[in-house]
Write a structure and sequence with these properties.
The complex is a heterotrimer.
Chain A: H1 2-7, H2 13-41, H3 46-61, H4 64-75, H5 79-103, H6 107-115, H7 120-151, H8 163-171, H9 175-202, H10 206-214
Helix pairs in contact in A: 2-5, 2-7, 3-5, 4-5, 5-7, 6-7, 7-9, 8-9
Chain B: H1 6-9, H2 16-58, H3 63-75, H4 78-85, H5 95-119, H6 123-131, H7 136-170, H8 178-188, H9 191-218
Helix pairs in contact in B: 2-5, 2-7, 2-8, 2-9, 3-5, 4-5, 5-7, 6-7, 7-8, 7-9, 8-9
Chain C: E1 2-9, E2 19-26, E3 31-35, H1 42-49, E4 57-62, E5 65-66, H2 72-77, E6 79-83, H3 94-98, H4 100-104, H5 109-122, H6 127-130, H7 140-152, E7 158-162, H8 170-187, E8 190-195, H9 198-204, E9 207-212, E10 216-221, H10 223-228, H11 233-239, H12 243-248, E11 270-272, H13 277-286, E12 291-296, E13 299-304, H14 305-312
Parallel strand pairs in C: 3-8, 3-9, 6-7, 7-8, 11-12
Antiparallel strand pairs in C: 1-2, 1-4, 4-5, 9-10, 12-13
The chains are: A mainly alpha, B mainly alpha, C alpha/beta.
Chain lengths: 215, 228, 320
């Protein structure tokens, strides 16, 4: 146990942790910046929504190591290819949830809003977005946890991050290093899950919580 | 890690000759191994989840702790899970560690769906079964589980797709399967292997998804919508 | 006043219009019910008033001005809108739901609060109990009340209501209808009301427009006239075989032109002047009497079966 703790005191540990977090956060932010506008653009066209959701579903079926590994021959080794691969990986859950969430705001509610004279922008900001928010946040949560996990694999294409400890531990049969890497990554993922779960709850309007309970 | 000029290092993205030459010897066994890993894991996970799910549906107090623990397992990144598992005595490096991890990942979805499926059985139906004199076991196996089956299959579908993806990473700890092609491709700087492994793993996941969805729909004839 | 002037609607890619050369006027302060079977274009017609749908031909005038004189959103804020599925915003409180249009019109907060409370009172929901609740906490009937209150929020002179009492059980629906008739007696809005239920049309409408599949206007008249003189076989069958009885239910015994009782009233059963003629008929038949006494304003008048029969005879009606 002590040996494991000692690994975290190594001079390169903070750097690995930092790379891991930066990779995850930046790719998640880029993915949000791409997936949300796309979902907004297709929100009122059933065909567009269906296409976005299906692209997302196929995207989710691609194994994360496959996306990272494919970045290698196309983009090469390093941080930037890892970032790009992680971004591609982070998009599908957000895209699926945002497109589904916006699509499923009931037609009557939108019709009532339009009939009362809300402009399209007001319908989006006051009605569609708040109602879809919990679903969108659930997508971001899934994506965040997935990215933290996949960032571990970035080490295979030279992206750095805590995965390096696991690789090092395995190659040198150094159990403390292996476990230090594994536990830190596990804790990071669990922390991400908890933080985003909290955000999801915070962004769920009370009226929707009550409606869900009733169901 | 040294930076290499990759565009020169790597040849063409796909060498079809390699694929045809190695199809029977390397590719097919890798695919079979992948299917085997995934199928065995789902089967074991189901054998654990069914009784646990039935218990959690009966004894509500058990549901929260069960989903909490399995949810925690589900959150742990796969490479970290493998890293921890191979240090456990009796597991070690190899397919065994991979299968244990894949089972662990399946539990949350499967148990959740078993409970949801059983919850969705209308109480009137169970009441009617009781009224006709069925024993509790007959009600469970003859009424509740068949009615819950579509939801359970939906869980199996999600778990299978997830597992097929994660199993590729298992190759790093000598689990075999399509992931081995991906890792070998990375190590040898040979894109064809990476792409073949990645495409087959994705295709396998999609085929599993679509066929299990078809099974799910067939099991739910009452939900078929009439087309206007 | 709302005027439909030669309004047709054909959707792109289809040949048959869903609304066909519709022309009629809804006078100020009256309820006009659009009624007909599904596919008759009644909802489409209503939605062309606030331009949720734009006509392919013709125009809709409001107080003599084409409704295209201002932007769609500006127009809609001046027209109340209530729909069958209610469409309450699930993430907003009841008060916020009712306050939508007033806040769009930038009323000040005190005025909005006062208005919301007043409206909740009007539709029979105590503001202190319901103001801060969410739609999910209300029953279907209560939600419909909120839907109607929301449509009236900015006190629009015109209201559009698409089966606003459609999503509740028959008993609640009848109560909501009765209450709404009472409210309308006070507020005198110009209302376009859509329903597929002829009984609701007769009960709610000052005028009824009966539409047939394909968006043809079959008849536009008062309920009494439509029941007495159906303009076509379609209307006759749509209003039902019991149209004579329906007509009797539109009249009150107290409003009939009856002779005073001349001493001979003793021993006859008494009937309240508030009853509809239909109910009076039912009572008389039930007690097996040909004659009864109606008491109203201290006067005693004689009602007879033959007087009711006379009333129920159809007027001369032209039939091609």
């Amino acid at each position: 146990m002590e040996a494991i703790f000692e690994v975290t005191q190594r001079p390169n540990f903070p750097e690995l942790l930092q790379t891991h977090i930066v990779l995850s956060v930046v790719s998640l932010l880029i993915a949000i910046a791409i997936a949300i506008p796309v979902s907004l653009a297709v929100r009122n066209t059933p065909l567009g929504s269906a296409i976005a959701i299906n692209i997302g579903n196929v995207g989710r079926a691609v194994p994360s190591i496959a996306i990272l590994a494919l970045a290698l021959p196309v983009l090469g080794f390093g941080f930037a290819p890892s970032l790009l691969a992680l971004t591609l990986l982070a998009i599908p859950p957000i895209l699926i949830n945002a497109a589904t969430g916006l699509k499923e705001v009931s037609r009557e509610v939108v019709d009532a809003a339009r009939g009362m004279g809300l402009s399209e922008a007001q319908i989006l900001s006051r009605i569609q977005l708040p109602i879809a928010m919990p679903v969108i946040f659930a997508g971001i949560r899934t994506s965040a946890v997935q990215v933290v996990a996949a960032a571990t694999l970035a080490t295979f294409i030279g992206g750095g991050g805590l995965g390096e400890l696991i690789v090092e531990g395995l190659q040198r049969s150094d159990t403390p290093v292996l476990l230090a890497g594994s536990f830190t990554i596990a804790l990071l993922a669990i922390a991400t899950e908890l933080i985003f779960g909290g955000l999801e709850r915070a962004f769920t309007p009370k009226g929707l919580r009550l409606a869900r309970k009733k169901k | 890690m040294s930076r290499i000029n990759l565009l020169q290092t790597y040849g063409p993205l796909i060498e079809w000759d390699w694929i045809s030459e190695n199809f029977v010897e390397d590719i097919l066994p890798a695919l079979q191994g992948h299917i085997f890993l995934s199928a065995v894991s789902v089967a074991i996970a189901l054998a654990i989840s069914l009784p646990l799910g039935i218990l959690a549906a009966r004894y509500r107090t058990a549901y929260a702790p069960v989903t909490f623990v399995t949810g925690l397992l589900y959150t742990i990144p796969s490479l970290a899970m493998f890293g921890i598992l191979i240090t456990v005595p009796g597991i070690g490096i190899g397919p065994r560690a991979v299968i244990v991890a894949l089972v662990a990942y399946s539990l949350l979805v499967l148990i959740r769906n078993v409970v949801a499926g059983l919850d969705a059985v209308p109480p009137e139906t169970i009441d009617a079964a009781k009224g006709m004199g069925l024993t509790p076991a007959q009600i469970l196996f003859g009424v509740e589980l068949p009615l819950a089956l579509p939801v359970i299959v939906a869980g199996i579908r999600i778990a299978t797709v997830t597992i097929i993806g994660i199993a590729t990473i298992g190759a790093y700890i000598s689990g075999g399967g399509l992931g081995k092609m991906i890792f070998d491709g990375i190590n040898r700087g040979f894109p064809t292997m990476i792409i073949t492994g990645a495409v087959l793993a994705t295709a396998l996941a999609i085929v599993a998804d679509v066929s299990l969805l078809a099974v799910e729909r067939r099991l739910r004839p009452w939900a078929r919508t009439r087309r206007a | 006043m709302i005027e439909f002037r030669g309004v047709s609607k054909t959707y792109p890619g289809t040949e048959r219009p869903v609304v066909n050369d519709l022309s009629f006027e809804v006078p100020e302060g009256e309820v006009c019910v659009l009624v007909g079977p599904s596919g008759c274009g009644k909802t489409t017609s209503m939605r062309m008033v606030n331009r949720l749908i734009e006509p392919s031909q013709g125009e809709v005038l409001i107080d003599g001005e084409p409704n295209t004189a201002m932007s769609g959103t500006q127009l809609r804020r001046k027209i109340g809108y209530a729909i069958q599925q209610i469409g309450l915003f699930p993430h907003r409180t009841i008060a916020d739901n009712v306050a939508i249009v007033p806040s769009l019109l930038e009323w000040d907060r005190d005025r909005i609060k006062e208005r919301v409370d007043g409206l909740l009172d009007l539709v029979g929901l105590s503001p202190d109990d319901y103001r801060d609740r969410y739609p999910a906490e209300l029953s279907g009937g209560q939600q419909q009340r909120v839907g109607v209150a929301r449509a009236m929020a900015a006190d629009p002179p015109i209201m559009l209501m698409d089966e606003p009492f459609g999503a509740v059980d028959p008993i609640t629906r009848e109560r909501l209808q009765d209450e709404f008739v009472k409210i309308q007696d006070d507020i005198k809005k110009t209302i376009v009301f859509v329903t597929h239920d002829i009984d609701e049309a007769i009960k709610m409408g000052d005028k009824i427009a009966i539409l047939r599949q394909g968006g043809f206007l079959e008849q536009y008249d008062s309920p009494e006239n439509i029941l007495a003189n159906p303009a076509s076989e379609f209307v006759e069958s749509f209003v039902g075989a019991d149209r004579v009885l329906k007509r009797l239910s539109l009249m009150r015994v107290g409003d009939m032109n009856l002779e005073p009782v001349n001493g001979e009233g003793s021993g006859l059963p008494a009937i309240s002047g508030d009853l509809t003629v239909r109910d009076a008929l039912s009572e008389m038949m039930g007690s097996g009497t040909e004659r009864a006494v109606v008491e109203r304003d201290g006067e005693r008048r004689l009602i007879t079966m033959s007087a009711i029969e006379e009333l129920s005879q159809d007027r001369e009606r032209p039939r091609e």
